[in-house]
Write a structure and sequence with these properties.
The complex is a heterodimer of chains A (248) and B (263). By secondary structure, chain A is α/β, with parallel strands linked by helices. Chain A has a domain of 152 residues: P-loop containing nucleotide triphosphate hydrolases (Rossmann fold, 3-Layer(aba) Sandwich), CATH 3.40.50. The two termini of chain A are 34 Å apart. The relative contact order of chain A is 0.16. Chain B is mainly alpha-helical and 263 residues long. Chain B is 77% helix and 0% strand. Chain B has ten helices and no strands. The radius of gyration of chain B is 19 Å and the shape is globular. The chains are: A alpha/beta (248), B mainly alpha (263). The structure holds adenosine-5'-triphosphate and magnesium ion (MG).
């Protein structure tokens, strides 16, 4: 089923979302939907407003105006209920250093009130091939392992919406590839919905069902990688990116 | 308020303390060092100041009690700093956790730390100086609770400032309570203060606690009015500090700096 088919339900509806940081408009009246079960790529140059958008979806940055609806409910008014069903991972955000892998998962499992927590932790450790790392302190993990721990925290709660902000940045090509496979597998298994950012164009094309192209806080294109490439009359996404980034 | 989430945060700190000797030491280090130094000074003074029979009780008692307030404040602020140091604020506040639940957890952690320090200090004072804090009577307990609560208010106030201004404000975690020390009249009665500072002291819960403690030591009867004042003021300040924390939480979300604290 194609994500754009008319019977596809929107899990998230972003409406006229805007964020202004003392005079600078980081996100400028953007509206888009995230459909149930799709991987939506958020593409854009540095400072385009991708992370700010993700932070507003997580309610750790409050919008200057506009709304986020999740399952038809407004995030502003149903924060707790909605955030239970969302999780995120980012290669920029670490996990508590002085706790072991397992303790970290234990804490976040409780925080999200994961049902059958112990069993779920075991599953996640296996899914991410982290069983042998369970007793390691987070501070002793390599950055690739730390990213996996961050993913494990996100997978653990079986979120309906998973927000991944540059999950493969700072990973070597091998680990980055494994990470992409893990995300893909997870998405297939649990049919969860994913919003994904990356500066790697190949990755973007490979991972995303649809892409939203953001520039200076505004959406400049939406569609599949092919559609966007065609719209700009370019060879590939990389060329589109360069055109947009350089000419606005 | 969700008990599971509060429990999760408390557990997070237990894991932290479980394997960190420096963190455990830190809890007891200063109170014990203070007690040793002041204890000997008191013993020394006691040798010739026969005119002040209660000097030991005054000093050692005051010292233990002031440390309680300080530890209560630190319990709150350090818990928050731990999250900054481990860059964990985003993980926490992007979860269903509410700021009120975060505060509730830090308050419980603070209470546990204070009780631990109190038990150790009381034991040391008794073992080394034969000073039994509780000869002052169980009437001391409501006063101690008031000191703890004042510590929480200052702790929450300080935490909000650190959340707003980031790491540069970190020193406040150690300095903030001492702004209140002169007007808390820990070691001297309110009456020695100049007039305008006496007015200030009247709205400081700790000043009422220490006045009350002196009344108990000198057997002036149970100082109910002091206790009422301390409790009333504390209720007001605790509520105000919690509201203030929520307000600052909204401010940092609007400024987009909640995720950047500590960076
Ligand atoms: N808390 C903040 N205060 C002020 N400006 C901010 C804040 N957060 C983000 N910005 C600004 O908002 C704009 C968008 O930033 P954002 O982090 O969303 O970009 P991004 O698309 O994620 O970029 P990158 O690809 O570099 O991660 C930038 O100009 C940034 O400087
Ligand atoms: Mg970003």
């Amino acid at each position: 089923m194609s994500p754009q088919s008319p019977n596809t339900k929107s899990l998230v509806e972003v409406r006229e979302l805007t964020k202004t940081f003392n005079g600078l408009t980081a996100v400028d009246h953007i509206s888009f939907d995230i459909y149930e079960g799709e991987i939506l790529g958020l593409l854009g140059p540095n400072g385009a407003g991708k992370t700010t958008t993700i932070h507003m979806l997580l309610d750790i940055v409050s919008p200057s105006s506009g709304n986020v609806l999740f399952g038809g409910k407004n995030l502003r008014h149903h924060r707790e209920e909605i955030l239970r069903q969302i999780n995120f991972a980012s290669s920029h955000i670490a996990m508590p250093f002085s706790l072991t892998v397992e303790e970290n998962l234990e804490i976040f499992g409780r925080l999200y009130e994961v049902p059958h927590r112990k069993t779920r932790i075991e599953q996640v450790l296996e899914e991410l091939e982290m069983t042998s790392l369970r007793s390691k302190l987070a501070r002793t993990l390599s950055s690739g392992q730390m990213t996996r721990l961050s993913l494990a925290k996100a997978f653990l709660t079986q979120p309906r919406l998973l927000l991944l902000d540059e999950p493969t940045a700072s990973l070597d090509p091998d680990i980055a590839d494994k990470t992409r496979t893990l995300v893909r597998e997870y998405q297939r298994r649990f049919a969860c919905t994913i919003l994904y950012t990356s500066h790697n164009m190949k990755e973007m094309e490979h991972m995303s069902d649809r892409i939203i192209f953001l520039n200076r806080g505004k959406i400049v294109a939406t569609g599949t990688a092919q559609e966007i490439t065609a719209k700009f009359g370019q060879r590939d996404l990389e060329d589109v990116f360069l055109t947009v980034a350089r000419n606005g | 308020m969700n008990g599971n989430r509060i429990h999760a945060l408390i557990l997070r700190h237990l894991y932290l303390y479980k394997r960190s000797l420096p963190r455990l030491m830190e809890i007891f280090y200063w109170p014990l060092l203070d007690l040793v130094v002041w204890g000997f000074i008191t013993v020394y003074l006691g040798q010739f100041e026969s005119g002040l029979p209660h000097i030991a009780a005054f000093f050692i008692g005051a010292l233990i009690l002031w440390d309680i307030l300080f530890r209560a404040q630190q319990g709150i602020t350090i818990s928050f700093l731990e999250e900054i140091w481990s860059r964990n604020l985003m993980n926490l506040f992007a979860s269903p956790l509410k700021p009120g639940e975060f505060l509730a957890a830090t308050i419980i952690i603070s209470f546990c730390k204070v009780v631990a320090v109190l038990i150790v200090s009381v034991f040391v004072a008794w073992a080394f100086y034969s000073f039994n804090l509780f000869v002052l009577g169980v009437s001391l307990i409501p006063f101690i609770l008031n000191l703890i609560i004042m510590g929480w208010s200052i702790g929450i106030l300080t935490t909000a400032i650190i959340m707003r201004y980031g790491q540069e404000a970190e020193v406040m975690a150690w300095g903030m309570v001492f702004i209140f020390q002169p007007v808390s009249c820990v070691f001297y009665p309110v009456s020695v203060l100049p007039g305008f500072l006496q007015t200030v002291a009247h709205v400081i819960p700790a000043a009422h606690v220490f006045e009350g403690m002196r009344a108990v030591i000198t057997n002036d009867g149970f100082p109910l009015p002091e206790l009422m004042w301390a409790s009333g003021l504390n209720a007001l300040y605790l509520l105000a500090s919690i509201l203030w924390f929520h307000h600052i939480y909204d401010v940092v979300k609007a400024k987009g700096i909640l995720v950047r604290v500590g960076e």
